[in-house]
Amino acid sequence: MATLEIHDLHVSVEAENGPREILKGVDLTIKQGETHAVMGPNGSGKSTLAYSLAGHPKYTVTGGTVTLDGEDVLEMSVDERARAGVFLAMQYPVEVPGVSVSNFLRTSATAIRGEAPKLRTWVKEVREAMDKLSMDPAFAERNVNEGFSGGEKKRHEILQLELLKPKIAILDETDSGLDVDALRIVSEGVNRVRETGEVGTLLITHYTRILRYIKPDFVHVFANGRIVESGGAELADQLENEGYDKYVKGGASA
Ligand SMILES: Nc1ncnc2c1ncn2[C@@H]1O[C@H](COP(=O)(O)OP(=O)(O)OP(=O)(O)O)[C@@H](O)[C@H]1O
Ligand SMILES: [Mg+2]
Questions:
Q1: Ligand 1 within 6 A of 44 CB?
Q2: Does some domain include residue 41?
């Protein structure tokens, strides 16, 4: 069972007037097979947590530990983290001009599996995965995210998730900007991966509607750079009704 353990994580970014601490002691353990929803106000540091786990160079870890099965994740390069099984679906996926979706996916799969997938089976694998996500096959030949609509970008993230089969999947607002049908299709994709029991999921979201499709085992409230409360699925409903007031009082989050 793969386990991602985050302990007392502190992260800063370089702001105009010097370093600014964004994460202020995050504690979270995610095991393979579990789904954790993280909810919290804008600017509380959720994406910073996601990027820090994936190894984005803009974020400096100033304290704490992150381990995957006891291995020090913070010591790993971005590539090593991906190979170790950490996957990030970004809140704002970036364009990769000049690289087709098909090449991008094959290069990623090669890096992660340690060998190039056999072309014949690979083409079939991609086509089937795209089909399940109701993606037009023509997307395979388009440049990554170039001119993609918001919803198309999110589907492309889930396509990667399905093909790369990570141990830990961090989904940063994969549900935002999706129409009702796309939300269902994307959720079904996440659930297919989840049902293998081989992935631990960190689902960052603002909306309980995705949690109707993807039932979280745990819900965490994120405020002012750390997790301030944890509970079961019922906590999400409570947040929807009551907001974050009681968690942000005393310290502005943004
Ligand atoms: N380079 C930077 N310089 C200054 N502040 C930064 C920088 N990068 C991030 N921040 C700040 O860090 C805080 C946390 O941002 P983050 O994107 O992690 O929030 P979030 O919880 O994901 O919010 P949202 O729900 O809106 O996506 C914000 O106040 C943001 O302005
Ligand atoms: Mg964010």
A1: yes
A2: yes
